[in-house]
Write a structure and sequence with these properties.
Strand order of the largest sheet: 2-8-7-4-6-5
Distance between the termini: 39 Å
Shape: globular
CATH topology of the largest domain: Leucine Aminopeptidase, subunit E, domain 1
Largest sheet: 6 strands, mixed
CATH superfamily of the largest domain: Leucine Aminopeptidase, subunit E, domain 1
Order of helices and strands: HHHEHEEEHHEEHEHEH
Number of helices: 9
Structural class: alpha/beta
Low-confidence stretches: none
Radius of gyration: 20 Å
CATH class of the largest domain: Alpha Beta
Length: 297
Amino acid sequence: MAVPIDLNAYRLAIRLDEPPAEVGALDPSAYVSALDRVLAFLATETRRDVSALGQGEKLRAVRFLLTIRAPKAIPATIMNDLDQCLKTRDLHGSVADAQGLATIRDTYAGSQYPAADHCVIWRGDITQLSIGAIVNAANSQMLGCFDPSHLCIDNVIHWAAGPRVRQDCATIMDLQDQLESTGNAKITRGYHLPADYILHTVGPIVRGALSEDQRQDLASAYRSCLDLAAQVEGLNSIAFCGISTGIFGFPKPAAARIALSTVAQWLADNPNKIDRVVFNVFSQEDAEIYSKALGEY
């Protein structure tokens, strides 16, 4: 059985330890021109007529075309235009600082959760969180979602971070030369995200009754992300999405209990490695599920 590659096998290939180049935002006129050049390039590649699009539709068209695009190189001038457009887009976001979020100890008075001082339950947009790394629930191809109609976290994170993430993932997968196994993880830079890095992990797919193997696979996904983060100097905070709880079908209450117990055990076994873990929830229902799971301690 083939073994997935470890961090040292791809770290240099994706220049993981180099901060992404700084780019500036554009004034409105320059933004329009740069976006037009990016859209023209992408439309020409796919032989699509975008001449009738209004200004408000052009960024959505760029997102669509990048989502369906294979992870091949983009000319440097076009990539620079795109970087500046994404930087300008990001000016309108509202970034939350993970270090300023209330911990479980602060929020749930009297909680007996063993990692309450280090963990946070937070409802918000994970792509707008300033933190060491966010976790992406990926599929085994590890290249992001290619369906623009999907509202999966994989799509959302790749669009927020920009196309260099897909290129880095392709480099990793070319080196690995096999699909990513369930429960494993890889790491890339965050690029246009306020997070420094993205941890990409493959959770189990549940169709029918939940099995013990699927429980173990989900726990492994959490541990793999934490283990990988601990290998990157200066990376001491992580935000987890609800791995496998979307289209992968893992029951949310069971997933929350596994997430909480696995993280608490890892933090106990690895003191002073990670000082903040955020459990990012999507809805009020999700927040209540975590609250109930915490009540079991």
